[in-house]
Amino acid sequence: MSKTYFVRTEPRVTSEDLTAGLAARISDPLWLLGRQWQLGELLGDDGGSPVGVDLTAETAMLDGFLGQAGSTDYDPALLPLDVLTGDPVRAERSWTARLRVDTGREFLRALADAGAAGYGPAYRAAFRIQPAAPGSSPPDPAGARLLAVATGRVPDGAALYARLAPAVRSGGPLPDAPPVAAQDVAAVSSAARAWLAWCDETLAETGASPWDDERLSHEFSVASGTGPGATVLDADSFRGGALDWHSFDLRPALQRTGFTPLPPLRALPTGIRFRGMPNARWWEFEDASVDLGSVDAGPSDVARLALLEFGLVYANDFFAVPLRLPVGSLCRITSLVVADTFGLRLRIGPAGHGAGRQGASRWSMFTLSERQPAAPDAAGPADLFFLPPVAGQVITSEPVEEVLLLRDEMANLAWAVERRYEGEAGRAAERVEEMTRTMPERTAPGEDAILTYALGTTVPPYWFPLVPEAGSGEVRLRLQQMADRDPGALPRGRFLVLGRPSIPDADVPREGTRLTRDYALTRWTNGATLAWARRVRTVGRGEGSSGLRFDVADYPEP
Asked: What percent of the chain has pLDDT over 70?
């Protein structure tokens, strides 16, 4: 029988005085000097550490939004810019069956809450939902079943919105149909206002969408002030998704007006800290959650090398001073005076401005590019910081519409593939499933079947060709219909519409383009919950094949 003994090694002190241990004396000072020389600590510079900052700044709030429909007033405290880029839903002529039913049902609830439930049958008769025609085969059977159930039970929300919304918003009288007794006008009007408020709260709509069908992107601007001295920010070619300060460019102006000085700030600068940053003390263990030393960077990885040089060499050379700004404001630092440990007071100017600040010597961070919309190449750094009023956290739905723009090298053609669209039931309807339901069952050819010649094969009904056409010095693609296709096989979504302007050939690269439309939900700073529809353009899935062939001999279709 054996035993294992664990012996713990502990230092044995000879005195109760802790002074010698706390002093941490080093027996070889020459070794310590050598380590200091190796680390470059003996290369001293005549530079002190900042101990005080005097800062003055001025700000200007956004107050205007410039879209394709013109200029409108904008208050960042009411809603974020993301909502202004949304896609209108109730303003469109075509409503889904789900939206028509839900909107009409809510109007009946508003009548009941206002004590005017007796007018429900009159509104159901005046704005009656028409079911699908008997014997017809609608593309979305779920929507047809929903309309059949709602017929006679709820009014048509689309017709109600078209008649009541303009009257309620303008404060005018109620429509003549159905007639309302004089003593009930106040109750029905109150129900209409409550119903319209529900419509606005359920789905935020701010007017026409800034989406440009020709450039496949959002084109809009925001402004602070009016006139020659207004500050205008342009969001050119915004593809949807996350909107931030780098999505905007600043228009040049000789003199900017409307800026208000902030109270002078006197603060103590603090060094910045981030994960993986080397600790200032030599014998202190560092956080192992981020290991900058394990980053693999080759000689051509300039971005990684710059990141490593900043994190490992110059990390302790950056200081921060907190400056509280309102959301949706433009800020300009008018004066920055730094006092260091040597008693010097230095005035610091923008790093990207001044004589000789060109090329590699020009440095800027979180600054806007100043350029004219007509001359996008003439860009330069601006001296304004933009804190955009955008939604930080957004909950998005599954795409209710999806279109792929891709190239087909075998057919030598570009295609617009409408994979899904928003069906009548309010959900995404798959075009391939619709095609499968309507396709006849194909049987194997018999022994006496003969081959037939076809000039060309057909493509799925949700594939639409993008035919090139000569433009002003560039190749453009126009959406067209196949010549031998059923005239009723049309796009059912909002992205693809026959007859719209052509798009540049560069918008359909080899990797393709993906267009989606979904719904987003967020909560703004004033506590309001906002939902809106949005369009997003992302990278596609590469090339595809439509199966289009020419000079084909095959067995005839059954």
From this structure: 89
The token duo for 507 is 């918008």
Six-digit token string for 115: 């004590």
Q: What is the DSSP string of 270-309?
A: EE---TTPPPSSTTSPPPSSS-GGG----TT-HHHHHHHH
Q: What is the mean pLDDT of the chain?
A: 85
DSSP state of 32: H
Could you tell me the CA-to-CA distances from 81 to 35, 235, 238, 247, 252 in Å, in that order?
A: 55, 11, 12, 12, 22
Cα-based distances in Å from 237 to 114, 219, 355, 504: 47, 6, 32, 13
Q: How far apart are CA 524 and CA 391, in angstroms?
A: 7
271 beta partners: 319
Instruction: From residue 545, give the alpha-carbon distance in Å to each of 106, 414, 478.
Output: 46, 10, 19
CB 59 within 8 A of CB 327: no
Rounded distance between C-alpha atoms, residue 295 and residue 359, angstroms: 28
Structure tokens at 222: 């925001």
Count CB-CB contacts under 10 A for residue 507.
18
Paired tokens of 251:
């228009």
Report d(CA 558, CA 555) in Å as an integer: 9
Residue located via tokens 């999806």: 402
Element of type H or E holding 518: strand 513-523
For every residue of 317-336, DSSP letters joined together read G-EE------TTEEEEEEEE
Q: Check: CB of residue 389 under 8 Å from CB of residue 76.
A: yes
| Cβ–Cβ under 8 Å, residues 337 and 265 | no
CB-facing half-sphere around the CA of 75: CA atoms within 13 A: 5
For residue 540, give both structure tokens.
């596609």
| Residue 294 neighbours by CB under 8 Å, 6+ apart | none
Which one is predicted more confidently, 288 or 203? Answer: 203
Angstrom distance (rounded) from CA 509 to CA 477: 12
Distance CA 252, CA 231 (A): 8
Q: Is 238 helix (H, G, I), strand (E, B) or coil?
A: strand
Partners of 406 in the beta sheet? 415
Among 12-21, 37-46, 90-99, 156-165, where is mean pLDDT lowest? 37-46
CA distance 49 to 319: 10
Flag whether pLDDT at 519 surpasses 70: yes
Count of alpha carbons within 13 angstroms of residue 218, beta-carbon side: 30
Q: What is the pLDDT of residues 379-401, one digit of tens each?
A: 677 888 999 999 989 999 999 99
- Integer angstrom CA distances of residue 405 from 412, 419, 539: 14, 11, 10
Please give the torsion angle defined by the CA atoms of residues 358, 359, 362 and 363, in that order, rounded to the nearest 10 degrees: 170
Which amino acid is located at 20 in the chain?
Answer: A
Sign of the Cα torsion 120, 125, 126, 131 reads positive
- Between CA 124 and CA 131, with CA 125 as vertex, the angle to 5 degrees is 80
Reduced to 3 states, what is the DSSP secondary structure of residue 105? helix
pLDDT at 455 over 80: no
CA 237 to chain centre: 12
**Would you put residue 366 in left (φ > 0), alpha (ψ -120 to 50) or beta?**
left
Strand ranges in 353-394 using DSSP code E only, listed in sequence order: 369-372, 375-381, 385-387
